[in-house]
Design a protein that fits this description.
alpha/beta, 8 strands, 35% helix, disordered N terminus
Length: 245
Amino acid sequence: MNENPDPLSALRDGPPADVSHPRTIRSFVRRTGRTTLGQAKAFADVGPRFLLAYAASPMDFSAVYERVAPTLLEIGFGMGEATAHIAGLMPEKNFLCCEVHTPGVGALLKRIDEQALTNIRILQHDAVEVIDHMLPLGSLDGAHIFFPDPWHKSKHNKRRLIQGPLIAKLAARLKPGGYLHCATDWQPYAEQILEVLSAEPLLQNTAAAAGGGYAHKPEYRPLTKFENRGIKLGHGVWDLVFLRA
């Protein structure tokens, strides 16, 4: 007798292995991992409301969020802990969040459901393509890039997300006065980020006169468990906040 298929198995196993991606600069590297049953259930229960489909056409924020409000982009939210915390602190703002890691997307959907958040939308797609094709110029009020992969080995530095071409694209999508907030716990990457952001003519450093160009941690960014563990081990964390001129 044939058994009924498990309706959540595809969600637990993640996206199909044969999905191809163009060989261009991307905002991510594929990681292995399996979603939990709770994350898979969140995909099924709340995913239809909060997950957006990628489309190579400009996004209408007012239609997507059913309101007119400041919109912030987050690139690579991991397991969504900081994202859910900040969105809860700022219900008056829209959060557009890009992450390709299926367990991370499931974890954020679960947090959205548990915390009754309504101001988050998720694109499980490469953020570079989202910026290129879905975000109009001057459409964002802010952008967050927290703890991107530092690619510690020198031969892998070219794979780092924060490089001049991407920052130029992102700066052009910010409104005048909009901000870009980056954070890293790897000092060599912090130095590179500072150099890249300082070289972008559309951006101005909010901490140029103090702290060596690094900002104090804004109150809205929480200390994650990973970050707290690093601080206890004596690791530093560097925040950089730049404004669109």
